[in-house]
Amino acid sequence: MKEFLKAMGKIVLAVLLLWHMFAVATYAFPRESQNPLNTYVKEKIHPIVTPYMLATSQWQLWNLFAPDPLRRVTIYHIEYQQDGLWKQLRTIKAGSFSIFRHAVQFKMLGNMLNEFSNNPSPIANRYLHLHCAEHGLAAGTPIRLQYEYYVIPQLERPAAAAWWKTWRPDSTIYTGFTTACPATR
Amino acid sequence: MKILRSADAFFFAPITARGFSMMRVSWAFWVGAFLLMQWNDVIFYYANEGILPRDVQEVFMRWNLRFSVLDYVTEPSAVFMLYLFFLGILFCMMIGLWPRITTIISVVLLYSFHERNTMILGGGDTLFRNLGFILMFAPNIHGYSVHRLEQQWAYWKKHRALLPPPTMPIWPWRVLLWQLLVLYLTSLWYKFLGTMWLNGTAISATFHHPVFTRWPRWVINFILPFTALADYMSLIFEASWALLLIPKRVARVVLGPLAKIPLKRLLLVVGIMFHGGILLIMDAGSFSLAVFTSYFGLLRDDDFTWAKTFLNRKKKEKIIVLYDGRCGLCTRAIFFLTIVDWLGRLEYVNFRDTAARKKIAPDVTEETLDKSMHIKLPDPSSGSGQARYLTGFDAFRKMAWSTPPLWPAAPLLYLPVVAPVGRIVYARIAANRVKCSHKGCAI
User: Fold this and answer.
1) Does B187 contact A103 at a Cβ distance shorter than 8 Å?
2) What is the pTM of this model?
3) pLDDT tens by residue, B365-391
4) Which of B126, B185, B211 to probe the A interface (max A CBs under 10 A)?
């Protein structure tokens, strides 16, 4: 009996392991790919494996620096209005944070930037409101997030160092979000 | 029946649990280190007072099939207390205090912090979460732990030997390997969906991104000529992991003598260089360190044997440690050295055993040996041709270079203040050691 239960336990565990491995592999299939296999996985398999992957916090996509690496370089300007003029409150760019906070802060800002397409943008709104509180801005003070960006060129072949030395980024400034400071935090 | 036996061996054959125990230590250390870096931002990231209050969180993140303790702990002070508790639990997990329970709590808390704010997560965080899941269920991850040390000490007192190395069924290793295969191969797949990796321009563009690069422009320009090659090498490295899917029997037939190359070990060595390079040149968060952590879990007995042979290739003879077998403190010191002597470079001789002493150290009297621990170095042919001895603190310092867990401390023992202080402390301990027993010591 003991041997039987042990064997059954092994079979159950093996099935669970195979299921886990199947779920991990299929969930990580690139979403962008349009080939028939991917389409099938997206339509038929993902609805089955996604609940398991989410419930166990195993969700994963390995698109680091891919399909192409991030080429947009963004500098964030937080400005508030005083006497009808916009004044600089804070500028965030590479080097603004210590080495320990750098990657995480820019990850968050990058996600906030991607979220700008949502209108209204609750995270940018919240971010600016926190700056109001931090800098003691009066309620109703207009505050905005501007982002200045340039794009690293997408070259068809590797360029020599000499080419990169002469390359100058061409920046564009875009107002991402404007709000007013709240009465309370 | 043969199929069942093969399936049983595929999932349940015993392997060493040392790799997974190392992975547990590394996981706890690096998760703790990166968590510690968020000290000033804990409230900002995780509390309702921060960037994601409940109403914003509901808009930004999924709200089904998730669990986070931080959904119930929302007040800033409570969140910070939970953060401190998490750090404490990670420390316990790292040193192996109740390793099973602290591992489970740590993984659940990591999930809780990640699920509370997904905006700040990168590839390294994801991998730590995946590794944590495997660690939570893997059997016998208590190697390199206080728990194991207690077991070893109890066994040592009885048998003057260490317990046999712990083993575990192979299935956690297979799941881990599968996780890495999925990581590398889907990462490769994603890269093929773009154009820059195939054009050889991806790394040069990334190096010019000021958020990612760690170095000034002139350094980047210096290494720029190698970046196209690095692009293609990255693709080849990631693709090479697929070779691990080929069964050994098939590989022997198809590849012939090439099948004898220890592919996994080769990939791990190249992987250390590859991810080490990324870590050195780019700020990509915790990803490289998460990968290194996973590599520990992939180590098997043959890898440990290979590493030991490789590191001992120039060390043919052992260092002989002459100790006082009547003194409890000395015996404990020998137990400690046995524990850290991963490379098997030390041999212990009780100098109270007259025959053994005369054989090993005929030129040193028992009275001299009684004053401090002596070690006899393995290379008497150098210098005067006489056997060379070191004593006390200097002996310990020498042994630190032969015992991997002490390697980080070894250079520090040469600092100007450390050596004289170390000699004084050692002399006091040695003078009072007769008062010591296995249970305690009055210095």
Assistant:
1) no
2) 0.92
3) 888 888 888 899 876 555 455 678 888
4) B211
